[in-house]
Write a structure and sequence with these properties.
mainly beta; 5-stranded mixed β-sheet; 11% helix; 46% strand; elongated; binds dinuclear copper ion
């Protein structure tokens, strides 16, 4: 059988194309490390999200080294948390689920783009090398507020990233002569020990205590305040620890009869 030269050329060209197509698809599937969302993340009862150990408290968790986990709940029409902050040079695993209908979790300008289905947990790991700001969008139609469903992801320079938190619990009013305490809770979250000094300044009193907060934990410092020494009136206080500061005011009321009528002992 005689095949025309041009026919042979076209046959060869078609073969090259077919092999080329198969090669690009194979490369796309395994080469750049792209993997499909599967059921690795597990399933969840969408009606009991608030009690779930992962999604009851959403946000960023440091899991060691440069690895972080971010737990996100999508709902009509917002994300919780609405703003996420992670450090640069980190490896971040997102766990996302939905409280109501199908949404998506798409970080604009990255290859993070997953459907979020009630009852399912979408899990994906991404490396962030450079600081940057990214928008998070829902691109799965989910109702009339769909176009407003957005969030924010900030990748901040490593030295600006900090998970330390200071919480102060203080009464606003106390009767003179009664002992009162102001509690300062410092939490670390970075899985390395944090040493700091917690201080309370109130009136001209100053209290100080060194604390070491271990790993993922938190420590509460109780400052017992001498109200007799403070005397009646409003006293501003300042609590500082680990570079953070909280302020408030403590009112010391006259021993008998509350804060009004304070001049009656004249
Ligand atoms: Cu959520 Cu569209």
């Amino acid at each position: 059988m005689n095949i025309h030269t041009y026919e042979k050329l076209w046959l060869a060209a078609a073969m090259v194309l077919i092999v080329g197509f198969i090669a690009t698809i194979t490369y796309g599937a395994v080469g750049p490390g792209v993997s499909m969302i599967d059921d690795d993340g597990g399933s969840i009862d969408p009606d009991a999200i608030s009690d779930h150990e992962r999604f009851g408290d959403t946000g960023v968790t440091h899991v060691g080294g440069n690895e972080y986990e971010v737990d996100v709940v999508a709902q009509a029409w917002s994300y919780s948390p609405g703003e996420i902050e992670v450090p640069a040079n980190s490896e971040v695993t997102f766990y996302v689920t939905s409280r109501d209908v199908t949404h998506s979790f798409s970080v604009v300008g990255t290859n993070i783009n997953t459907m979020v289905i009630p009852g399912e947990v979408s899990q994906m790991t991404v490396e962030f090398d450079e600081p940057g700001e990214y928008g998070i969008l829902c691109n799965e139609y989910c109702g009339q507020g769909h176009h407003n469903m957005e969030g924010k992801l900030n990748v901040v320079p490593e030295d600006e990233f900090n998970m330390t938190e200071l919480d102060v619990e203080a009464p606003s009013e106390v009767e003179a002569g009664n002992e009162t305490t102001i509690n300062a809770t410092v939490s670390d979250g970075m899985q390395t020990d944090l040493e700091t000094t917690a201080t309370l300044e109130i009136g001209d009193q100053r209290y100080e205590e060194d604390v070491t907060i271990s790993g993922d934990g938190s420590e509460t410092v109780e400052f017992a305040v001498d109200t007799d020494e403070l005397g009646a009136g409003d006293h501003d206080w300042t609590v500082t620890a680990a570079g953070y500061e909280e302020r408030g005011t403590l009112t010391v009321a006259d021993g008998n009869g509350g804060s009004d009528g304070g001049d009656s002992d004249a």
